[in-house]
Amino acid sequence: MLGIEDDSVFTAFEEEELSDPSPRKTVDGRSIYVSRELQLPKAWGAPVLCDFGSAVIGEIEHLEDVQPDIYRAPEVIVEAPWSYSIDIWNTGCVYTLDESNANYDTILVQILLLTAKSFIPRI
């Protein structure tokens, strides 16, 4: 997750909600709102570590479904045993957010081709 240095996205979100409230319904006394998209900020902040509720001991192999879909490591996707190596995948995902790293698509294909053989017996 990345911090947001540009607070104007939150101001715009609030103003939009005030002028055009999101559809909602009430179930058992709780309001449920339709999601509303945030604009992209003009400036991103530093990466932030989060979701420690999913933290596990790294030396042991796991099979749990973890990580957001968009950043999910290949071994998690194919339901192969995984360990701390999936954190390295996420580091690569953060690396690709820097648009000056123009070769990341090529690097990603190379990584997947090199590791694909190790996944085949597990599927």
UniProtKB/TrEMBL annotation:
Domain of life: Eukaryota
Molecular-function annotations in GO: ATP binding; protein serine/threonine kinase activity
GO cellular component: nucleus
Keyword annotations from UniProtKB, A to Z: ATP-binding, Kinase, Nucleotide-binding, Serine/threonine-protein kinase, Transferase
Transmembrane segments: none
GO process terms (BP): regulation of RNA splicing
PANTHER family: SERINE/THREONINE-PROTEIN KINASE DOA-RELATED (PTHR45646), SERINE_THREONINE-PROTEIN KINASE DOA (PTHR45646:SF11)
Name of protein: Serine/threonine-protein kinase AFC3 like
